[in-house]
Amino acid sequence: MYYRELTQEEYRDIAKRILYEDNHVLIFNKRPGEIVQGDKTGDEPLSETLKAFIAMRDNKPGQVFMGVPHRLDRPVSGVAMFAKTSKCLERMNEAFREGAVHKIYWALTCEKPNPEAGELKHYLFRNEKQNKSYPYTEGEKAPQGAKEARLKYRTIKSFDRYHLVEVELLTGRHHQIRCQLSAIGCVIRGDLKYGAPRSNKDGGINLHARSITFVHPTKKEEITVCAPVSWPPFIEE
User: Domains of the chain, with CATH numbers?
Assistant: First the structure.
């Protein structure tokens, strides 16, 4: 099996962004703009880049397995999990379906949440053509196919213009954090799709998958992996 040869710069960059790796699991610090899995754009996804990296690093002549149990939106940064074996992929897919994986996100919002901490519950309807979700509160008539979405949040710190909010996902819906924070008037910095006044220079949004906690698929030990934030400082223009 042939994989493209990474440049030395690419190779070093990939190596330093691997947050955790063993025989079954690889956890990577994704940048805004990178795609986890192939899509209609035809851009190379991280799953293929990581295959090329492992083939080079380990001098592996055969096929490299790299499954994707966990996806992040293209403009989002942070923890992205990959499965290096089919056993890991199967077991982690099941863990995500059952809600057994604990995920924490950091968001930089244009307004301060009121109250500063709480739990949000909406029914989200995904518009496939627009690639956007719409929120409905309990009592509102939501379109058929809307799914319950719940998250907990707390405000960590406020700056002159933005506010750092920590989010714990209780369900996993399309654009859930982006949509639910926007629904309470707290649009994420750079997120034009959900109402931000302007985009970020890198085309990303200030939503970061900060940490993931899961039971290892073979060792059965609980593991937590945390991704450094690449917003130096948070409100840099």
Answer: 8-100 (3.30.2350.10), 111-186 (3.30.2350.10)
